[in-house]
Specification:
Distance between the termini: 19 Å
CATH class of the largest domain: Alpha Beta
Number of domains: 2
Largest sheet: 8 strands, mixed
CATH superfamily of the largest domain: Carbon-nitrogen hydrolase
Structural class: alpha/beta
Strand content: 25-35%
Helix content: 10-25%
CATH architecture of the largest domain: 4-Layer Sandwich
Radius of gyration: 24 Å
Length: about 500
């Protein structure tokens, strides 16, 4: 099978030591080129190091797009006929503005793209525009460039996929810790149907330890190709499969399931919504006990027998199969009234006849058909919830739209949830809402993360399921990342939302 050889330069970056870093960087790039690498990727801020506290601190180490490092790498690219990606601290001569940037050099040594990090370091860097181009065309397909935490917020990689990216290349400076970037990067490849390679680093920086930082690669189905770390500088080679000389992608299949008309609330400016309770007139917040029961309706009798011991306000069941759907709804509705709990579940086949139902303690029911109906918000006594399918939440736009409408918890009844689907759904909490998901095999509840850390999660495979007391008041303080291209994200499919129609110049290898 044809393969695309990509080399990741997992560099031991020394803080504020550009001469040493540059010499090591050039040596490793020459070695990678001599081993046949067709694309060489270097880490974020590879020459300067990463941790700077002010513009004055980073200024002595900043370079222009025509700087010493890029000129030296251009000679290597030209001699070897390969592409080279470099993350560096950039100064714009016309304004003196500093950026965290990544440049792509073509096989002729010419600068093809200079991308500026959108989620830039607040202490010294100017954020790049979300409207900037981050795509290059190669002989193997369209390649999107992203920098480190640009991948944390799902809408930035999604924008790249909508621009036609078959492959994400990520330059990173992401240490090990409470949030493992491997989980995020694997999710971004899977949910967009585009391969992803991420070049991380090793060594000690000024304020971070990166010896357990991983460089990674995932195919378009989210399968692991490499996940590797090193205590010292290393070259990591990965080979991506090609078919007919082109990268394998599931992008168009994945994006064709988007329904942009349902996502329109994502453009709303929520900066004045300091208190979502007042802003949206939401139910008064109180702690809410959520129970997910993987056993489904079979466990309802047991739950009823524990009526004196349970204080669950919300019970989530999986997707249930029955020939008597109305009888099942009636039985669960009676249980809801007896328990005094809202009970949510699904009936039917995913993507076909699926019905999502919420039985309320007052004997009423709310339901929607994901294949036909818009999102539906249900107000309980102390929380606003929404019933969504796991297929709908493969699209981050859905979670953001719900969160901006004041949704506290996205409830996801499912037939089965595998490890990667669990990670995708958990990562949706980054979009500022809790997730309560229940399959026949597993259940979990996730709370939004604090800053750039992993979401809090209660996960259970046991029959008793996951029980989590959700602090609804915390969910009313939402902070949205809004440096995105709303027109691109809300473009209708017939207008070209699944791929970019903009012609690019293809550099010959």
């Amino acid at each position: 099978m044809e393969r695309l050889n990509i080399a990741l330069i997992h560099l031991d970056v020394r803080h504020a030591d550009p001469e040493r870093n540059r010499a090591e960087l050039l040596r490793l790039n020459r070695d990678a080129a001599s081993c046949g690498a067709q694309i060489i990727v270097n880490t974020e801020m590879a020459v300067s190091g990463y941790s700077f506290r002010s513009p004055e601190e980073v200024l002595p180490f900043a370079e222009t797009k025509q700087g010493t490092t890029l000129q030296a790498l251009a000679r290597i690219a030209r001699d070897a006929g390969c592409y080279i990606v470099l993350g560096y601290a950039e100064i714009e001569p016309e304004t003196g503005i500093l950026y965290n940037s990544a440049a792509v050099l073509g096989p002729d040594g010419e600068l093809l793209l200079n991308y500026r990090k959108v989620t830039a370091e607040a202490r010294w860097a100017c954020p790049g525009s979300p409207l900037q181009d981050n795509i290059i065309e190669t002989p193997w397909g369209s390649v999107a460039l992203l920098i480190c935490s640009d991948t944390y917020y799902a809408l930035l990689p999604r924008m790249s996929a909508l621009r036609g990216a078959d492959l994400f290349i990520v330059t990173a400076n992401w240490p090990g810790g409470s949030l493992d970037p491997r989980e995020i990067w694997q999710v971004r490849a899977f949910e967009n149907g585009s391969s992803l390679v991420a070049c991380n680093r090793t060594g000690n920086d000024r304020s971070m330890e990166c010896f357990e930082a991983f460089s990674c690669a995932y195919d378009s189905a989210g399968n692991v190709l490499i996940e590797t770390s090193s205590p010292c500088s290393a070259i990591c080679h990965v080979e991506l499969p090609l078919v007919g000389g082109r990268l394998v992608t599931l992008r168009e299949r994945h994006l064709s399931a988007r329904i942009p008309s349902r996502y329109r609330p994502i453009y709303l400016d929520m900066r004045y919504a300091a208190d979502m309770t007042l802003y949206h007139g939401l139910p008064a917040p109180e702690a809410l006990a959520v129970r997910c029961l993987p056993g489904g309706s079979a466990d309802m009798q047991r739950l009823l027998s524990e009526r004196e011991k349970t204080e669950d306000a919300l019970v989530v069941l999986p997707l249930l199969h029955t020939e008597d759907a109305e009888g099942l709804v009636h039985m669960i509705s009676v249980s809801s009234q007896m328990l005094g709990s809202a009970i949510c579940f699904g009936i039917g086949e995913p993507r076909e006849t699926l019905r999502l139902v919420c039985c309320l303690p007052d004997g009423t029911q709310r339901e929607r058909h994901p294949g036909h109906d818009d999102f539906m918000l249900v107000d309980l006594d102390h929380a606003r919830i929404a019933l969504v399918s796991k297929e709908e939440l493969l699209h981050p736009e859905a979670a953001t739209a719900l969160a901006k409408q004041g949704c506290d918890i996205a409830v996801v009844p499912a037939l089965h949830l595998d490890r990667l689907e669990r990670a995708v759904l958990g990562s949706r909490s980054i979009e500022q809402l809790a997730i309560a998901a229940c399959g026949a095999n597993v259940s979990f509840v996730c709370m939004p993360p604090v800053e750039h850390y992993r979401w809090e999660e209660k996960y259970e495979e046991a029959p008793e399921g996951a029980v989590f007391v959700v602090d609804i008041e915390k969910l009313r303080k939402k902070h949205f990342f809004d440096r995105v291209d709303y027109r691109l994200l809300l473009q209708q499919p017939e207008a070209g939302a699944c791929c970019s129609d903009t012609p690019k110049t293809v550099a010959k290898s």
